[in-house]
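Practice problem: 1-phosphatidylinositol 4,5-bisphosphate phosphodiesterase delta-4
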Amino acid sequence: MSMENHCSVEQQRVMAQHLTHILGNKLLKTTLDGKPPIRLPSPQELKGKILVKAKKIGGLEETEVSDDEDGAEIDDDSIHRDSLRRRVMRSLPELQHSRIHSKFYEVASFTESKARKQLKEAGAEFVNHNARQLTRVYPSGFRTDSSNYNPQEMWNVGCQIGDQWSAAAQSEHKGRFHRGSSGASEIHGVPLDQNKQETRWIENNGFNPVWYDTLRFTIHAPELAMVRFVVEDYDKTSKNDFVGQYTLPLSCMQQGYRHIHLLSKDGTSIPPSSLFVHVRITEL
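Answer key — structure tokens:
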């Protein structure tokens, strides 16, 4: 949970009380083993826990790295810190400086453009950085429509935190479709694994189409792969209408016959719409 805090100390105490009351045991308030931490806990160790990201006075505090031109808020102190940081960076690459001087509990914030630059110019070092520390990537200030970058490329290099907005649904979902229906499976992951395959379309059976099609994918980095099932209302003369979708990590897929309950574009359920599929995963 990333908080931009402009409250007085008194109101911050009230916020802390509300967070503790509402989030309960899920809120991580102490170290996992009760001892001073020496490294960032693994995602598995933090499973089911909620972390609050905010500036803290004294003790473990966060260091922000951000681009002024992309709309980050700054004050006189941050200008001074940024000026000092830039002088250091002239003689030392940024990620190398982070490896030497940054603490594991500090959080780095990058705009999407700066994160892509790190990805292209220092990909391996960026991965190592994200293994040591949390990294937040936020959309460019030029995205005035509140759109979001594709988070998959950031996940591929280990960035953990992103700012995302749900897209508004762009078509109405009907319980019964009078034209044809088509389905597709998409793989999102490392560039080598990006792929999309479609079924044939079924005419005049939008309510309960049956495809009996087999879609095969070869995946090289399964731990980073996401599988997206999409159903569309097929149209010969115009763009297909979106019906429903469901996305999940490949690592969470179970083999055998499975029901996939479809969601709208904004993630809400659209019962009773679902897909009945057979999944088989083999190692090459």
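Discussion: DSSP finds six helices and nine strands in the chain. Students who identified this feature from the tokens alone can consider the problem solved.
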